[in-house]
């Protein structure tokens, strides 16, 4: 076990990870039909790293051991030596803090050690905050303040609805960044979704709703994006047909981009993202209309639309996504860690993969936390940002293996 760790305050829970079988549904396609039970356990404890955050959404670790944390209302906060500093690093004034929207992801530039650049995604409001979209800014960290802030991307996804912003960010290590953009709740009506499923904005690549975009690090469009120069397609789009992508991570060890997205009532998905592919929302899927449980989709499968690598029925309300690479949890190496926020189904899912195939999965901490973000720290421990939907202060905790 590594001796280098961020300071923590107290140990709050000790125990074995829980094994949990996730129910499948009869109409699942063969490639995703198996929803396996876990095959192994790991003894660990849970420690509180810092408390008192209000709707923390994302975490990033600085080289000096500090931690940056976004709070949904618009503040970028700094944690130093286990203490939350009183003064924010930045307050983003044009955040549209409504419903699911707010200040979202914080990530460091791949060459942060040389340039001190930090990227933030957020729900940007218009002048009177009546409309919002997903935007990406970056600034330079200097003396615990964010300076020289500039917007480098604004999604063509403006709407008055308060949800489905996406806003997760991942770097590929080759000079590009990916960012998710939600479908902005398009087509949702009381009692169900619009029946014009094939005309849904997530199926229309002339906008950014329901997409993963790929940008150069300065926000410009890479020449080798799949739709560059193609009529009717915005050039930033890498993939489309998504609902609300709330997890995004690039695995440099395998060169794969993984995404998790919310289904409606059932049908949360784990997807292996490939360029130019259509992931089907809302034409195909495994969810149902809220409350009434009636069918949404035209089918479970369709030629030319991608199947998920795995799905959750009932929904766990997927959130942050990480890939474990480290020495502390050796039997988790290469596993995906998926946060979940949904009521009795909330958990941390450990998903075992071989290539593009999900081979097994295990539910950790079932029912314990509403998990908003998951990160693997530089010390090899697993950090979790917990959330309270009513705005009560919550902690960041970490999982520590027991000797």
How would you describe the overall organization of this protein?
The protein is mainly beta and 403 residues long. The chain has one domain: TolB, C-terminal domain (Neuraminidase), CATH 2.120.10.30. Helix content is 1%, strand content 41%. It is built from one helix and 28 strands. Strands 1-2-28-27-26 form a five-stranded antiparallel sheet, with no helix packed on it. Strands 3, 4, 5, 6 and 7 form a five-stranded antiparallel sheet that branches. β5 and β6 form a beta hairpin.
The main sheet comes to: 5 strands, antiparallel
Reported CATH architecture: 6 Propeller
What does the radius of gyration come to? Answer: 20 Å
Distance between the termini: 8 Å
Specify the number of helices: 1
Highest CATH level, the class: Mainly Beta
Overall 3D shape: globular
Q: How many beta-strand segments?
A: 28
Uncertain runs are: 1-39
Question: Mean pLDDT across all residues, rounded?
Answer: 90
Report the β-strand fraction as a percent range.
35-45%
The run of helices and strands is EEEEEEEEHEEEEEEEEEEEEEEEEEEEE
Number of domains: 1
């Amino acid at each position: 076990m590594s001796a280098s760790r961020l300071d923590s305050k107290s140990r709050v829970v000790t125990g074995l990870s829980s094994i949990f079988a996730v129910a499948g549904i009869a109409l699942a396609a063969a490639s995703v039909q198996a929803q396996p039970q876990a095959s192994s356990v790991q003894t660990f404890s849970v420690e509180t790293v810092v408390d008192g955050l209000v709707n923390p959404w994302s975490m990033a670790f600085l080289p000096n051991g500090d931690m940056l944390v976004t709070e949904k209302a618009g503040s970028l906060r700094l944690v130093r030596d286990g203490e939350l500093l009183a003064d924010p690093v930045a307050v983003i004034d044009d955040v549209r803090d409504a419903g699911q929207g707010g200040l979202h992801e914080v990530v460091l530039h791949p060459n942060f050690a040389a340039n001190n650049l930090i990227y933030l995604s957020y729900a940007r409001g218009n002048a009177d905050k009546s409309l919002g979209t997903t935007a990406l800014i970056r600034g330079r960290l200097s003396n615990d303040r964010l300076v020289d802030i500039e917007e480098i991307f604004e999604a063509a996804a403006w709407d008055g609805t308060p949800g489905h912003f996406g806003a997760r960010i991942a770097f590929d290590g080759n000079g590009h960044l990916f960012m998710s953009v939600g479908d902005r709740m398009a087509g949702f009506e009381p009692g169900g979704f619009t029946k014009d499923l094939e005309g849904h904005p997530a199926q229309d690549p002339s906008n950014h709703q329901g997409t993963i975009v790929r940008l150069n690090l300065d926000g410009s469009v890479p020449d080798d994006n799949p739709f560059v120069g193609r009529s009717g397609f915005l050039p930033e789009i890498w993939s489309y047909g998504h609902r609300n992508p709330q997890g995004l991570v690039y695995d440099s060890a395998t060169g794969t981009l993984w995404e998790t997205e919310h289904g409606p009532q059932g049908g949360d998905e784990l997807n292996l993202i490939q360029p130019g592919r259509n992931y089907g929302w809302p034409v195909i899927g495994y969810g149902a209309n809220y409350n009434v449980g009636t069918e949404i989709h035209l089918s479970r499968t369709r030629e030319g639309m991608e199947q998920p690598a795995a799905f959750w029925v009932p929904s766990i309300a997927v959130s942050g996504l990480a890939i474990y690479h480290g020495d502390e949890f050796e039997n988790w190496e290469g596993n995906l860690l998926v946060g979940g926020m949904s009521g009795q189904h909330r958990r941390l899912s450990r998903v075992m993969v071989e290539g593009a195939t999900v081979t097994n999965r295990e539910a950790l901490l079932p029912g314990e936390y509403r998990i908003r973000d998951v990160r693997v720290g530089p010390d090899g421990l697993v950090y979790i940002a917990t959330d309270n939907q009513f705005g009560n202060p919550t902690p960041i905790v970490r999982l520590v293996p027991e000797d």
